[in-house]
Amino acid sequence: MAKVQVITDSTADISKDLIEELGISIVPLKVHLGGESYLDGITISPSEFYSRLKETDELATTSQPSPVDFVEAYREAAKDGDTDILSIHLSSALSGTYQSALLAQSMVEDEFKVTVIDSKKASYAIGMIVVEVAKAAKEGKSLDECVEITHRIIDQEQIYFLVDTLEYLQKGGRIGKASAMVGSLLNIKPILTLNAEGEVSPVEKVRGKSKATDRIFELLKEKMKNGVDKAAVVYTDNRKEAESWAKRLKEMFDMEDVELTEFGPVIGAHTGPGTLAVVALPKQW
User: Fold this and answer.
1) pLDDT of residue 179
2) Contact, 190 vs 202, CB < 8 A?
3) Of 6, 143, 210, 259, which sits with the fewest C-beta atoms within 10 Å of its C-beta?
């Protein structure tokens, strides 16, 4: 049976330790700021990016990998032969990354097998999928089994996030159905999620950040009636707040471990500093 190599893009916001441990291949997107272009998480770190973002009035922009970038990654993954490639990517509603991967797939289809999946997710909501699938691949699961796991997590996973301001999402054109929130935000904190189409979508409008945070945990408890199997908190320039959320998750769901990971520069360019998210997977997913 062919081994499965899992490939994703840099917006999955997976820690370098997990990337190395699980042998995950990453294709980076680019972020453009102050007349310079950087490879997401490679030539600029999240902390450097947020520091620079605060110092400028300029809007950071991003760009997807080219099909050639994916072809190179696929050929590298397949060079030893007997490899099936599973390529899992950022929501197609937010980026053309998935389309680039599909084009690359068509360019190598006579050489080896590549399966490309639109995660309908962003940041560690992709990362959690990729990590679990990479673990399954390392245990010797087949491509079909890994694809089934991918879709199961996509269906079961929950993500909620808060942004300090909708300005970045609005200006970057990624606000989707949350656009109705704009213009009514005096003291209002919208709780956001990614809907089934992979668009940024409002869950509720809550007055004040503290109440919005409380409501996120209430929503998690409602959704995770049988408990939480895995959870992560994703942060920008606000690790202390993220640690507080992680502690609360551990206490609420009697968990030993909650992953803490940073929003990388590409996702951070569209959410802005001060963003916090929780990603959770129920027990028996």
Assistant:
1) 52
2) yes
3) 210
Q: How far apart are CA 16 and CA 249, in angstroms?
A: 24
Q: Give CA 285 to chain center in angstroms.
A: 19
- As beta bridge partners, residue 189 has 206
Q: Is 151 in the same domain as 168?
A: no
Q: 3-class SS at 202? A: strand
* Counted domains in the chain: 2
Dist CA 19 CA 177 (whole Å): 33
Residues 9 and 119 in one domain: yes
What is the pTM assigned to this prediction? 0.92
Weakest mean pLDDT among 1-5, 20-24, 143-147, 216-220: 1-5
State whether 196 and 102 are in the same domain. Answer: no
Which residue range is the domain that position 125 belongs to?
Answer: 3-29+64-156
230 Cβ contact partners less than 8 Å away, ≥ 6 residues apart: 128, 132, 259, 280, 281
- pLDDT tens for each residue of 165-217: 777 776 655 555 555 454 445 668 889 999 999 999 999 989 889 999 999 99
Which tens digit of pLDDT belongs to each residue from 15-55? 999 999 999 999 999 999 988 999 998 999 999 999 998 88
DSSP bridge pairs for 230: 281
Segment 56-64 mean pLDDT: 89
Q: What is the DSSP string of 139-186?
A: TT--HHHHHHHHHHHHHH-EEEEE-S-SHHHHHTT--GGGGGGTT--T
* Residue length of the chain: 285
Which residues in the chain belong to E strands, given as ranges?
3-9, 25-27, 30-33, 36-39, 61-63, 83-89, 114-118, 158-162, 188-194, 200-207, 228-235, 259-262, 276-282
Please give the structure tokens belonging to residue 162.
């808060």
